[in-house]
Amino acid sequence: MRPIQFLPVASAMLVSLAVAASAHGDEDAKPVSPIYGVSLPDGYRRWELIAPALEGEPLDELRAVVGNRIAMEAYRKGNLPFPDGTVLVKLAWKRTPSPEFEPAAVPGAATTVQVMVKNSRRYAATGGWGFGRFIDGRPVDEAQHRTCFACHEARVKGHDFVFTRLAS
């Protein structure tokens, strides 16, 4: 018996197991948004700030939008449309009065993390952007994701579907 004959069979079995595992989901796999398949990007909490925001009623949130290196380069150069590979992440918290200084507000409980990913081919039908909304690291339902592009298209089509401007 020649051991070399088992190598192709063993390789085929490993490939089959890997394909089956990915098809059935891996416990370590990142959750992805419905419709777009967008996940929370690695390391996004260390990305550079694009701009803070205050959302009034009814949400009453403090927000911060951060971007990956590609996004930041495009913002600084004023490049529109944003290039493929741009990723924007909006973090949001309930606005809470500061216990130390009454006129100020501080972040309260986290509400959502929203993600926009630019990929002109994959998301051609939605202006080149894929969207994800997450609460506690899990994507929200499909119905909420259906509203993402419509809102961006109606209000900021002329700014490559992006609301946030770079704070100087």
From TrEMBL:
Coiled coil spans: none
Q: Which Gene3D superfamilies match?
A: Cytochrome P460
Keywords, sorted A to Z: Signal
Under CDD domains, the record lists:
cyt_P460_Mc-like
Give the highest taxon in the source lineage.
Bacteria
The record, for InterPro entries, names: Cytochrome_P460, Cytochrome_P460_sp
The UniProt record lists the keyword Signal: yes
Q: Where is the signal peptide?
A: 1-25
Instruction: Please state every residue range assigned to the domain named Cytochrome P460.
Output: 41-164
Q: What is this protein called?
A: Cytochrome P460 domain-containing protein
Organism lineage: Bacteria, Pseudomonadati, Pseudomonadota, Alphaproteobacteria, Sphingomonadales
